[in-house]
Amino acid sequence: MSSSVIRGEVTAPSSKSATHRALILAALADGESTINRPLESDDTTATLRALEQMGAIRRKVGSAWVIRGGELGEPSGPVHCGESGTTMRLLTAVSTLVEGDATLTGGPSLSRRPMQPLLSALRRLGVECESRGGLPPVTVHGLGGLRGGTTEIRGDVSSQFVSGLLLVAPLARTPLTIQVTTPLESRPYVSMTVDAMKQFGVEATVSGDMRTLTALNTPYRAATVTVEGDWSSAAYPLAMGALRGEAMVNNLNLTSSQADVEFIKVLEEMGVDMQVRGSSVITQRSSLRATEHDLSDCPDLFPVVSTLCTQAEGTSTLRGLSRLRLKESDRVKSMRDGLRAMGANFTEQGDAVKIRGSRLRGTQVDPQGDHRVAMSLAVAALAAEGPTVINNAECVSKSYPFFWGHMEHLGADIRRIKR
Hints:
alpha/beta; UDP-n-acetylglucosamine1-carboxyvinyl-transferase, Chain; 24 strands; 30% helix
């Protein structure tokens, strides 16, 4: 692909995080729930198949999924979570509700992502579970439900651990309280979990500092929900418009609890010419200025924001990046290597990076199989001189299966290389 003028509009894909939560809650609720506009991607398909292995029944009605849930059972074999950390972590907690053994495994990248904090928290609640040195695969010896009580968990490794515990808390035999022992990072993702639980009839109680969480022992009720647009995915076409023309992204909720709605603030800080029209956001080519931003609560934005920083006047500082070492790839390193190969001035300083505005040149880059890195390097390619080749470009199917089609619709010059 190469430098292109961007102009047009696209509809943001549905939220991956919200789809995961809706699927799990529908499987835990008695009766049939309808999930309108779910995201169909590699990750959400992994969650759906895992829940079907545990006894949930899914049928498709138009673009909706109808899920018949209730009491989950022991899966007939290992549950493969693909490369989805959300699937692995949330369903490890859900497996405690099964009477029997559940072994959760995954692909090479997922098998390197930590699970120990969650397993330790479950053991404090009387759950027997095993892992490969704190890494997947994980086996949970379920007893048909948690006994309740109080458990502790770190908040600085993954908010998914807290979300997993919170999802099963209402189904414990006695009230379950979760104490977070370190400041919780990626707080908005836990807020999304609380919002999703409310849609299925359960109110969670969360302290102001999000260090103490609990939920009443109340069964989930079947519900009909509509999944809102995904801010994580919307960031890429919005960045394209800011760099190379004009882009409108529809299907966005400006009051969403999604972490990556923070992208609007980043665009404002960087001086992007932007308009909001109802549920649509429009960005236009702008002279960008450097920014200083802490991404602790929205780490998925780092790859695309770092790309924008290469085209800003001055030196930008992005902080709160330590957990990015434990994603589908080491995202700090993957973006550093990719952007440096294109000519960017990119320096690491502990859990922060400094990026000075630079002229980018096209080259061959490897996103390390990481969907967010691939999409961000595609945005960088639009601003680079000369063609850019992105290896393993199909990895975007993890979260945004029609990303390349949307890019072409917006005017990007893309040529697929047959292998």
